[in-house]
Design brief:
This protein is of the alpha+beta class and 150 residues long. The chain has helices spanning 8-12, 22-34, 57-74, 143-149, and strands at residues 17-19, 40-42, 83-85, 93-96, 120-123.
Length: 150
Amino acid sequence: MSDEPKRYRDSFSGKFSGIIPWEKFDELWGRLKADPEGWYVYRPDSDDVPPDVVHGSKAFLAFLEEADEFLHEQQYADYCGAVYVDNIQKPQFIKIFHPRKMGSGCSIGGGSHTVILPWWTVSRVRPEKMRGTEQPEPKKKGLVAKFLKG
């Protein structure tokens, strides 16, 4: 295992669990409020320069209130569904999507290679500039796949 700090892009591309019920969202927000120090908040789809310092606890708590209000206003359903976390018990990276600009699950892994960026990321890792139109690296095909595809 490497002692190098984890990069933002590696964390961004890691495994996440969706927060569906509002009760789970409230649990996650409670954990974040209980530990407000050391968080970066970034809007990856903006032209803003990624922050190089963490939010102070007062600013972070204000952000959590703003995001909570925003999600409840924008999500008309009786579930959250717009928040994804790497570990709900000990969160290190959270993706918060705009509930009405998340795209479709049907395009995931299909013909669309456009990455829909979260509205905000909340992370312990210093953010890096991201673009929603980045193309993923093409997967290398094995010998059998080359023959089957023609």
